[in-house]
Amino acid sequence: MVEGARRGLALERLAITHAGRPLVALDIVVAPGEAATVMGPSGVGKSTLLAAVTGTLDPAFAMTGRVRLDGVDVTGLPTEARRIGILFQDELLFPHLSVGGNLAFGLPAHVRGRAARRARVEAALERVGLSGYAGRDPATLSGGQKARVALMRMLLSEPRALLLDEAFSRLDAALRDQIRRLVFDMARRDGLPVLQVTHDRSDAAAANGPVLELHP
Ligand SMILES: Nc1ncnc2c1ncn2[C@@H]1O[C@H](COP(=O)(O)OP(=O)(O)OP(=O)(O)O)[C@@H](O)[C@H]1O
Prior knowledge:
ABC_SmlMolc_Importer; Putative thiamine transport system ATP-binding protein; ATP binding; nucleotide-binding; ATP hydrolysis activity
């Protein structure tokens, strides 16, 4: 962390254009443990905004402004060096790996040795009430269980910020509420800044943080 710099995720005068036309402009700091929401109708540029933050912006778009994590400018860094976790609406677990294999996939390389990696995976499963599920085939899990495994796979990668791209939109109402609460609670507890994009007001309410509206 840079001395005196603001902690969290900062999008500084971020502006994205397509063929010279402005698409999205945003200036925001999300503090550790805070969850901000960007809302707007389909096609307004929500996913494009997240791509700019993760460093996966399609070359069809141009971007100005900076992305900072805990004061460090990551704008020029490749995606994998940014350490930003993202959850999408279709969170796909690898079908050829067990639940434990999926989770181990998220682990950073610095966690070495079978025993250490296994312990991390077990602790993650325990955190979401899935102790003993490591050997299971992901195909045998319920939607809610899959969502929890996907969340933990992402958290095991030790991200410094969490992005949510309509992450709850495919879940039915009851499950949506439950998973949403779990994600925001965990992020708060882990002190992660969260930036979610959604067109659903209840997602914004659940985040309990600042809400920004994008307009076409
Ligand atoms: N690779 C691309 N090349 C050109 N235009 C694109 C590309 N990807 C997206 N767009 C356009 O950019 C605009 C923003 O798309 P984006 O997917 O960010 O919107 P969104 O707000 O996330 O929409 P939704 O809520 O439907 O996911 C849209 O008009 C889209 O058609």
